Amino acid sequence: MKRIDGIKVNSFLEIKASEKEIDGILEKTKQLKRLSVEESAKLLSVRSSALLKKIYDAASYVKNTVYGRRVVMFVPLYISNFCVNSCLYCGFASNNKLTVRKKLTFQEIKEQTEILLKRGHKRILMVAGEMSSSEENTDYYVGAVKAIYSADYKGNKIKRVNVNVAPMSLSGFKRLKEAGIGTYQIFQETYHEETYRKLHIAGAKSDPDNRLDAIDNAFKAGIDDVGIGPLLGLYDYRFEILAMLMHIEYMEKAYGVGPHTISVPRIEPAPGSAYASAPEYPFADEEFKKLVAVLRLSVPYTGIIMSTREAADMRDVLVNLGVSQVSAESRVTPGGYEDNSVGIPHNDKLERQFSVNDQRTLDEMVKSLLLQGFIPSFCAACYRKNRTGEHFMDFAKSGEIKHMCDINALVTLKEYLEDFAKPELKELGYSLIEKYKTKLDKAGLRVLEKFSNNISCGVRDEYI
Questions:
Q1: Of 381, 401, 419, which marks where a domain is finished?
Q2: Can you tell me whether residue 145 is helix, strand or coil?
Q3: pLDDT at 421 > cutoff 50
Q4: What is the pLDDT of residue 348?
Q5: GO molecular-function annotation terms (predicted)?
Q6: pLDDT at residue 344 tops 60
Q7: CB 180 within 8 A of CB 161
Q8: Average pLDDT estimate for 327-350
Q9: Strand-pair category, 200-202 with 226-228
């Protein structure tokens, strides 16, 4: 695609809106209609606490209408921190002499996956630095995906592997799809060209077009679930959000579908990076909440991901404002998962990509969601039923996806409770399942009861 028109984005930043205009835009969002970039800019311009509350209420309504009260759980698996790129904000930068480099073997990747399976994880985001050549990258990524899927713990296997890796050739993307990945995720980091070139000083990533074109190549290779996002704090967050929305408009026009997910990471300190410890464009938590809510309203059918970069209290707030996927007990270093370990091991401080602020275990994260009335979901049914890309959007826009997601989420929650949860958590989870049974229609209740009884008899991994 062509680069984002920075002049046009800046013109949107000058937009202001009256209370009447804001109310009109929010009324449109309640009909689950996509917003224009200009309308989104008007929402981002809001400062009034009374209007912000209206935005938050609308975002909560849209999120619950499209996705229900489910929150998808996943865990990142870092397989290598070798990287040819020099990015000023990243602990993996090739010129960072502090970082201890590590590249997991396929056997080590399988062993790390088995540790995660023992804890109850079913969805993995595979992450790696960019190595010396596209072909080398592809061979390693494909082998790693196969290693993850080959892992087994008492019949439990990973249901879905999403990947956050470097751009590849068209043939490389096709091989990745054949390996069975779910979503291909790549961040532009910053859409502001001058800032991009200043922060990415060497390596293939120094060319901003390389990353923009990666999305096109993924679509052309048949990967219709893609994830995008900026690294917030590199430039004005309003510019980044509006530029990303222009990128989404391009995707919708070119391929008939926007991103399956959007991530909104904020820059965090990283070993060896002075820039990451003092970013040029920090912004307040209230502005962060606003941008998440505006994203939910702008692209109502797209999943919003919140990583453990954010503190626990912030993540607990944001699942109410539009976030639909969260990670738990993340280790952001290759080989960081250890049996029975709690928190970040001390020996990974010079190997990780950035600092982690929410160090809750999966059990603790599940408990937090249950206490807020959310359904922690370990489902991957849409991917396995080929409900991806435009097909997924058809289900989402008709509202049918919510019905299926509620049942699948409750089923996967019961599996987790039966196989991995402590007694206190089981009681809390079973109580929530009983509550949600009353919200299902008769047909849905019959399906849930059937699957639930099968779980009690030892059957696993049923879904609609």
A1: 381
A2: helix
A3: yes
A4: 52
A5: 4 iron, 4 sulfur cluster binding; catalytic activity; metal ion binding
A6: no
A7: yes
A8: 72
A9: unpaired
Tell me what pLDDT residue 87 has.
Answer: 96
267-292 per-position pLDDT tens digit: 999 888 999 999 999 999 999 999 99
Residues 324 and 453 in one domain: no
Is there a single domain that holds both residue 298 and residue 411?
no
407 and 338 housed in the same domain: no
**pLDDT per position as a tens digit, 1-29:** 778 999 999 999 999 999 999 999 999 99
DSSP 56-89: HHHHHHHHHHHHTTEEEEEEEEEEE---S-EETT
Euclidean distance between CA atoms 92 and 354, whole angstroms: 9
The secondary structure element, H or E, covering residue 171 is helix 170-178
Domain assignment present for 82: yes
Q: What is the pLDDT of residues 243-263, one digit of tens each?
A: 999 999 999 999 999 999 999
- Total structural domains within the chain: 2
- Residue 425: inside a domain, yes or no? yes
Q: What angle do CA 162, 436, 378 make, to 5 degrees?
A: 15
Residue 347 is predicted with a pLDDT of 46
Long-range contacts of 149-155 (CB under 8 A, 24+ apart): 149/180, 150/110, 151/110, 151/111, 151/113, 151/114, 151/117, 152/114, 152/117, 153/114, 153/117, 153/118, 155/460
| Mean confidence (pLDDT) of the chain | 92
Is the pLDDT at 342 greater than 80? The verdict is no
Task: Kindly state the tokens that stand for 67.
Answer: 């996705």
Residues contacting 167, CB < 8 A, separation 6+: 134, 186, 204, 210, 211, 213, 214, 217
Final residue before a domain boundary, out of 346, 364, 381: 381
Q: Give the Cα separation of 67 and 303 in Å (integer).
A: 9
Range(s) of the domain holding residue 429: 386-457
> What is the C-alpha to C-alpha distance for residues 419 and 118, in angstroms, rounded to an integer?
9
Helix (H) / strand (E) element for 160: namely strand 160-164
Report in angstroms the alpha-carbon separations of 52 from 15, 60, 320: 17, 12, 14
